[in-house]
Design brief:
- This protein has 128 residues and is an alpha+beta fold.
- It has two domains: 79 residues, no CATH class; 45 residues, no CATH class.
- It is built from three helices and five strands, in the order E-E-E-E-E-H-H-H.
- It has a five-stranded mixed beta sheet, covered by helices on one side.
């Protein structure tokens, strides 16, 4: 969840608490040695050790009480800079599949509505 990208080395710790100083809805948590971030680009997670340049920069955002809209582009850039290419491809493939499934379900719901069937019927997927 948080280890798609790891910036720095060491023991990241066993738990972290939400960073309330960053305004807006986000999933940035911290402990004494690292930041844990989830829900980034393509639903990627990341750990940033505070002893790194990136950790110090994130600490500055926290001190400034920056809004997540200011921080997120910087975090997404880090994801794209550091993510393993195979992991990125996997994330892209997953996003495409999820978008296709959501689109198919949306289309099925529209057809059911047009036929007056409402939500009484559900699509059942069978793995073959």
């Amino acid at each position: 969840m948080w280890d798609d990208v790891i910036i720095g080395t060491g023991n990241k710790g066993n738990s972290a608490v939400l960073v309330f100083a960053i305004e807006g809805e986000h999933s940035i948590s911290e402990n004494s040695v690292s930041y844990w971030i989830s829900g980034l680009y393509l639903d990627t997670g990341m750990v940033i050790f505070k002893s790194t340049d990136e950790g110090r920069q994130l600490n500055e955002f926290v001190k400034e009480k920056a809004h997540i809209d200011q921080v997120r582009p910087w975090l997404d850039h880090l994801v794209l800079q550091y993510i393993d290419k195979d992991r990125l491809k996997n994330r892209i493939d997953h996003a495409i599949a999820r978008a296709f499934e959501e689109g198919s379900e949306h289309r099925a719901n529209r057809i059911r509505e047009a036929l007056g069937l409402g939500s009484r019927f559900h699509i059942v997927k069978h793995n073959t």
